[in-house]
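Q: Aldo/keto reductase, please. Structure only.
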Amino acid sequence: MVKNLQDTTTLHNGVKMPWFGLGVFKVEEGPELVNAVKYAIKHGYRSIDTAAIYQNEAGVGQAIREGIEEAGISREDLFITSKVWNSDLGYESTLAAYETSLNKLGLDYLDLYLIHWPVEGKYKDAWRALETLYKEGKVRAIGVSNFQVHHLEDLLKDAEIKPMINQVEYHPRLTQLEVKTFCQDNGIQLEAWSPLMQGQLLDQPVLKDIANKYNKTVPQVILRWDLQNGVVTIPKSTKEHRIVENANIFDFELTNEDMELINSLNQNLRVGPDPDNFDF
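A: Structure for Aldo/keto reductase:
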């Protein structure tokens, strides 16, 4: 059982990654972003997830520098993730995109770098670039995002290095069982984005009943469900009290019956794009 906010999972290359972190999707550059990341670090979060397309890497970098100083920790205590965007997929362009992200963040290395979407005909060249970055010691772990089973199977045909992470939309309405099983069978750690379905599950009766049973909120129940399913999770918030509340999930454990009840809410329903049918 994951027992605290600093608990880690060991990726297949031996790198330890926190089970829980902060996502900053759609948080614009500015004080709100900087404060959110600093709140997270202050309250014990050690994993921060951004991406080139979020256009907030500079603010995240500023918050990291200020946050570690105020918290009295070091850069090595944090696990920082970014992602290469679709327009930069390709061998040389991905290498260049990595350096751009690193410069914006003001960091010497990333802990995890991901291919953001499986753009057909492009992700294999991008993966070769990630393998190069990894071999050169510029990033501690590499992975993919939004890859379905057939994308992973295709990638693994030619990959020298297996992805350490597959970050996908994952919540009680989209349990991605096929992807989850494939990743487990192949030593790829599954990670959830939009774990709270952008707030669409707050009034779901089954989740409300379970939350009342444990004297917890619906988001806390969902995030606990993620962890008990062996899924790394990165909820997004900019409010300090919510950042604290989201992480207050280590003092209870859902029963097997509750886990199955939540699993049964699956409807294969997405709030984000379909990885097999997206155009951006």
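A: Brief note, in case it's useful. The domain at 8-263 is CATH 3.20.20.100 (TIM Barrel).
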